[in-house]
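Q: C-alpha coordinates for this one, please.
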Amino acid sequence: MTPKKFDYFVPTSLEETIQLLQKEDSKVLAGGQSLLALMKLRLAAPSALIDITKLQGLSYIRQEKDYVAIGALTIHDLVEHSEIIKSKFPLLVDAASKIGDQQIRNRGTIGGSACHADPAADMPCALSALNASFVVRGKTGEKVYPATEFFVDLFTTTVEHDQIMTEIRLPNLPPMSGSAYIKHSRREGDFAIVSAGVVLTVGPGNVCKDVRIALGAVGPKPLRATASENYLKGKTLDDKTIAEAAAKGTEGADPPSDIHGSRKYRMDMIEVFIRRTTKLALSRVQ
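A: Here is the predicted structure, written as C-alpha coordinates:
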Protein backbone atom coordinates (compact mmCIF):
# COMPACT_ATOMS: atom_id res chain seq x y z
CA MET A 1 0.00 0.00 0.00
CA THR A 2 0.99 3.64 -0.39
CA PRO A 3 0.27 6.56 1.94
CA LYS A 4 -2.61 8.92 1.37
CA LYS A 5 -1.72 12.31 -0.10
CA PHE A 6 -0.20 14.82 2.29
CA ASP A 7 1.51 18.22 2.30
CA TYR A 8 5.23 18.24 2.99
CA PHE A 9 7.15 20.98 4.81
CA VAL A 10 10.84 21.33 5.69
CA PRO A 11 11.21 24.09 8.30
CA THR A 12 14.61 25.55 9.12
CA SER A 13 13.87 26.82 12.64
CA LEU A 14 11.99 25.75 15.75
CA GLU A 15 9.77 28.82 15.49
CA GLU A 16 8.77 27.88 11.94
CA THR A 17 8.19 24.28 13.04
CA ILE A 18 5.88 25.31 15.86
CA GLN A 19 3.98 27.60 13.49
CA LEU A 20 3.49 24.76 10.99
CA LEU A 21 2.29 22.48 13.79
CA GLN A 22 -0.74 24.70 14.21
CA LYS A 23 -2.08 23.01 11.06
CA GLU A 24 -4.70 20.45 11.99
CA ASP A 25 -3.64 16.80 11.76
CA SER A 26 0.02 17.51 11.02
CA LYS A 27 2.81 15.16 12.12
CA VAL A 28 6.48 15.67 12.84
CA LEU A 29 8.86 13.53 10.77
CA ALA A 30 12.26 12.83 12.34
CA GLY A 31 13.89 9.47 11.53
CA GLY A 32 10.63 8.16 10.07
CA GLN A 33 11.27 4.59 11.21
CA SER A 34 7.81 4.25 12.78
CA LEU A 35 5.65 6.94 11.19
CA LEU A 36 6.37 6.11 7.54
CA ALA A 37 5.62 2.43 8.10
CA LEU A 38 2.26 3.34 9.65
CA MET A 39 1.49 5.69 6.78
CA LYS A 40 2.22 3.03 4.18
CA LEU A 41 -0.25 0.74 5.93
CA ARG A 42 -2.67 3.69 6.21
CA LEU A 43 -2.83 3.24 9.95
CA ALA A 44 -1.76 6.88 10.08
CA ALA A 45 -2.88 9.48 7.54
CA PRO A 46 -1.67 12.97 8.50
CA SER A 47 -2.66 15.82 6.22
CA ALA A 48 0.83 17.32 6.52
CA LEU A 49 4.32 16.07 7.33
CA ILE A 50 6.75 18.47 8.95
CA ASP A 51 10.26 17.18 8.28
CA ILE A 52 12.53 18.45 11.08
CA THR A 53 15.71 16.71 9.93
CA LYS A 54 17.09 20.03 8.62
CA LEU A 55 16.75 21.79 11.98
CA GLN A 56 20.09 22.84 13.40
CA GLY A 57 21.02 22.29 17.02
CA LEU A 58 18.81 19.35 17.97
CA SER A 59 21.45 16.61 17.68
CA TYR A 60 23.88 16.62 20.60
CA ILE A 61 24.94 14.90 23.81
CA ARG A 62 26.45 17.23 26.38
CA GLN A 63 27.14 17.37 30.08
CA GLU A 64 25.34 20.13 31.96
CA LYS A 65 25.73 20.88 35.66
CA ASP A 66 23.19 18.41 37.06
CA TYR A 67 22.26 16.33 34.04
CA VAL A 68 23.25 15.07 30.61
CA ALA A 69 21.27 16.70 27.80
CA ILE A 70 20.44 14.77 24.61
CA GLY A 71 18.93 16.56 21.63
CA ALA A 72 15.73 15.05 20.28
CA LEU A 73 17.26 14.48 16.81
CA THR A 74 20.23 12.51 18.16
CA ILE A 75 20.31 9.18 16.32
CA HIS A 76 20.54 5.90 18.23
CA ASP A 77 24.00 5.14 16.87
CA LEU A 78 25.42 8.32 18.44
CA VAL A 79 23.79 7.42 21.76
CA GLU A 80 25.25 3.91 21.61
CA HIS A 81 28.80 5.14 20.97
CA SER A 82 28.86 8.31 23.08
CA GLU A 83 31.68 8.29 25.65
CA ILE A 84 29.55 10.38 28.02
CA ILE A 85 26.69 7.88 27.85
CA LYS A 86 29.04 4.89 28.17
CA SER A 87 30.63 6.27 31.32
CA LYS A 88 27.47 7.50 33.02
CA PHE A 89 24.50 5.48 31.73
CA PRO A 90 25.48 2.03 30.41
CA LEU A 91 21.78 1.15 30.56
CA LEU A 92 21.17 3.53 27.64
CA VAL A 93 23.99 1.96 25.63
CA ASP A 94 22.38 -1.45 26.26
CA ALA A 95 19.06 -0.15 24.96
CA ALA A 96 20.37 1.73 21.92
CA SER A 97 22.44 -1.24 20.78
CA LYS A 98 19.33 -3.47 20.73
CA ILE A 99 17.22 -1.25 18.48
CA GLY A 100 16.55 -2.87 15.10
CA ASP A 101 19.68 -3.12 12.97
CA GLN A 102 22.51 -0.74 12.11
CA GLN A 103 20.55 0.97 9.31
CA ILE A 104 17.69 1.71 11.71
CA ARG A 105 20.09 3.01 14.37
CA ASN A 106 21.63 5.31 11.75
CA ARG A 107 18.24 6.90 11.01
CA GLY A 108 16.03 6.53 14.07
CA THR A 109 16.21 9.25 16.73
CA ILE A 110 15.93 9.05 20.49
CA GLY A 111 13.30 11.81 20.46
CA GLY A 112 11.23 10.08 17.81
CA SER A 113 11.27 6.81 19.73
CA ALA A 114 10.27 8.54 22.97
CA CYS A 115 7.43 10.47 21.33
CA HIS A 116 6.12 7.43 19.45
CA ALA A 117 5.76 5.80 22.91
CA ASP A 118 5.52 2.19 21.79
CA PRO A 119 5.44 0.21 25.07
CA ALA A 120 7.49 -2.59 23.47
CA ALA A 121 10.20 -0.22 22.23
CA ASP A 122 13.53 0.04 24.02
CA MET A 123 13.88 3.77 24.68
CA PRO A 124 10.66 4.45 26.64
CA CYS A 125 11.55 1.72 29.16
CA ALA A 126 15.21 2.75 29.40
CA LEU A 127 14.42 6.46 29.81
CA SER A 128 11.83 5.69 32.47
CA ALA A 129 14.41 3.75 34.48
CA LEU A 130 16.83 6.68 34.19
CA ASN A 131 14.20 9.10 35.51
CA ALA A 132 14.54 11.20 32.37
CA SER A 133 12.85 14.55 31.85
CA PHE A 134 11.53 15.81 28.52
CA VAL A 135 11.62 19.40 27.28
CA VAL A 136 8.53 20.28 25.24
CA ARG A 137 8.20 23.50 23.22
CA GLY A 138 5.04 25.15 21.92
CA LYS A 139 3.76 28.59 21.00
CA THR A 140 3.15 29.40 24.68
CA GLY A 141 6.70 28.51 25.72
CA GLU A 142 8.65 25.60 27.16
CA LYS A 143 7.79 23.01 29.79
CA VAL A 144 9.72 20.08 31.28
CA TYR A 145 7.93 16.81 32.06
CA PRO A 146 9.28 13.90 34.14
CA ALA A 147 9.00 10.45 32.58
CA THR A 148 6.17 9.56 34.95
CA GLU A 149 4.06 12.31 33.35
CA PHE A 150 5.47 12.26 29.81
CA PHE A 151 4.33 8.72 28.97
CA VAL A 152 0.54 8.82 29.22
CA ASP A 153 -0.84 5.74 27.47
CA LEU A 154 -0.41 3.50 24.44
CA PHE A 155 1.38 5.59 21.76
CA THR A 156 0.47 8.69 23.76
CA THR A 157 2.63 11.32 25.47
CA THR A 158 2.03 14.76 26.92
CA VAL A 159 3.22 16.34 23.64
CA GLU A 160 0.21 18.04 22.04
CA HIS A 161 -0.29 18.20 18.26
CA ASP A 162 1.02 21.79 18.18
CA GLN A 163 4.12 21.10 20.32
CA ILE A 164 7.51 19.51 19.75
CA MET A 165 9.83 17.70 22.15
CA THR A 166 13.34 19.18 21.84
CA GLU A 167 15.53 17.66 24.55
CA ILE A 168 15.87 14.74 26.94
CA ARG A 169 17.60 15.29 30.29
CA LEU A 170 19.17 12.49 32.30
CA PRO A 171 19.96 13.42 35.93
CA ASN A 172 23.47 12.57 37.08
CA LEU A 173 23.65 9.39 39.13
CA PRO A 174 25.22 9.36 42.62
CA PRO A 175 28.53 7.59 43.26
CA MET A 176 28.32 3.81 43.62
CA SER A 177 25.52 3.54 41.07
CA GLY A 178 25.04 0.95 38.36
CA SER A 179 22.52 0.49 35.57
CA ALA A 180 21.52 -2.13 33.02
CA TYR A 181 18.86 -2.90 30.44
CA ILE A 182 17.93 -6.35 29.10
CA LYS A 183 15.12 -7.30 26.77
CA HIS A 184 13.60 -10.60 25.78
CA SER A 185 12.71 -10.82 22.09
CA ARG A 186 12.29 -13.46 19.40
CA ARG A 187 15.25 -12.23 17.39
CA GLU A 188 18.03 -9.68 17.83
CA GLY A 189 16.60 -6.24 17.12
CA ASP A 190 12.93 -7.22 17.46
CA PHE A 191 10.54 -5.36 19.74
CA ALA A 192 10.53 -6.66 23.29
CA ILE A 193 8.33 -9.43 24.60
CA VAL A 194 9.44 -8.21 28.05
CA SER A 195 12.15 -5.69 28.88
CA ALA A 196 13.62 -4.39 32.13
CA GLY A 197 15.78 -1.40 33.00
CA VAL A 198 17.37 -1.08 36.44
CA VAL A 199 19.27 1.80 38.06
CA LEU A 200 20.54 1.26 41.59
CA THR A 201 22.79 2.95 44.13
CA VAL A 202 24.47 0.99 46.91
CA GLY A 203 26.13 1.80 50.20
CA PRO A 204 28.63 -0.11 52.34
CA GLY A 205 28.03 -3.85 52.37
CA ASN A 206 26.02 -3.70 49.13
CA VAL A 207 23.03 -2.22 50.95
CA CYS A 208 20.57 -0.77 48.45
CA LYS A 209 20.25 2.99 49.00
CA ASP A 210 18.04 3.64 45.99
CA VAL A 211 16.69 1.74 43.00
CA ARG A 212 14.45 2.29 39.98
CA ILE A 213 13.07 -0.61 37.95
CA ALA A 214 11.18 0.01 34.72
CA LEU A 215 9.41 -2.63 32.64
CA GLY A 216 8.49 -2.55 28.96
CA ALA A 217 5.91 -4.46 26.90
CA VAL A 218 3.84 -5.37 29.96
CA GLY A 219 1.25 -2.60 29.75
CA PRO A 220 0.18 0.39 27.67
CA LYS A 221 3.20 2.44 28.80
CA PRO A 222 6.47 1.86 30.70
CA LEU A 223 5.73 0.45 34.14
CA ARG A 224 7.69 1.13 37.30
CA ALA A 225 7.97 -2.01 39.44
CA THR A 226 7.44 -0.06 42.66
CA ALA A 227 6.76 -3.14 44.81
CA SER A 228 10.17 -4.56 43.83
CA GLU A 229 11.83 -1.18 44.38
CA ASN A 230 10.37 -0.75 47.85
CA TYR A 231 11.37 -4.27 48.84
CA LEU A 232 15.02 -3.75 47.82
CA LYS A 233 15.60 -0.39 49.51
CA GLY A 234 17.58 -0.73 52.72
CA LYS A 235 18.39 -4.41 52.15
CA THR A 236 21.65 -6.13 51.30
CA LEU A 237 21.66 -7.02 47.61
CA ASP A 238 22.29 -10.75 47.53
CA ASP A 239 20.79 -13.47 45.34
CA LYS A 240 17.99 -14.26 47.80
CA THR A 241 16.89 -10.65 48.26
CA ILE A 242 17.01 -9.92 44.54
CA ALA A 243 14.94 -13.05 43.78
CA GLU A 244 12.35 -12.09 46.41
CA ALA A 245 12.11 -8.56 45.00
CA ALA A 246 11.78 -9.86 41.44
CA ALA A 247 8.83 -12.05 42.49
CA LYS A 248 6.97 -8.86 43.41
CA GLY A 249 7.55 -7.28 40.01
CA THR A 250 4.29 -8.42 38.47
CA GLU A 251 2.21 -6.16 40.72
CA GLY A 252 0.43 -3.67 38.48
CA ALA A 253 1.54 -5.37 35.24
CA ASP A 254 -1.07 -6.02 32.58
CA PRO A 255 0.73 -7.63 29.62
CA PRO A 256 -1.12 -8.62 26.46
CA SER A 257 -1.34 -12.06 24.88
CA ASP A 258 -0.25 -12.31 21.26
CA ILE A 259 1.58 -14.60 18.85
CA HIS A 260 4.88 -13.90 20.63
CA GLY A 261 3.75 -14.92 24.10
CA SER A 262 0.78 -15.34 26.36
CA ARG A 263 -0.04 -13.06 29.25
CA LYS A 264 1.05 -15.75 31.70
CA TYR A 265 4.35 -16.23 29.89
CA ARG A 266 5.08 -12.51 30.04
CA MET A 267 4.20 -12.41 33.74
CA ASP A 268 6.68 -15.23 34.36
CA MET A 269 9.35 -13.42 32.33
CA ILE A 270 8.93 -10.23 34.36
CA GLU A 271 10.37 -12.01 37.39
CA VAL A 272 13.20 -13.55 35.36
CA PHE A 273 14.29 -10.30 33.76
CA ILE A 274 14.07 -8.13 36.87
CA ARG A 275 16.38 -10.62 38.53
CA ARG A 276 18.85 -10.74 35.64
CA THR A 277 18.91 -7.00 35.07
CA THR A 278 19.33 -6.16 38.76
CA LYS A 279 22.28 -8.51 39.01
CA LEU A 280 23.89 -6.97 35.93
CA ALA A 281 23.39 -3.45 37.29
CA LEU A 282 24.92 -4.53 40.62
CA SER A 283 27.94 -6.04 38.88
CA ARG A 284 28.57 -2.71 37.19
CA VAL A 285 28.70 -0.97 40.56
CA GLN A 286 31.29 -3.41 41.82
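A few notes: DSSP finds twelve helices and 14 strands in the chain. The chain has three domains: 7-51, 61-171, 177-285.
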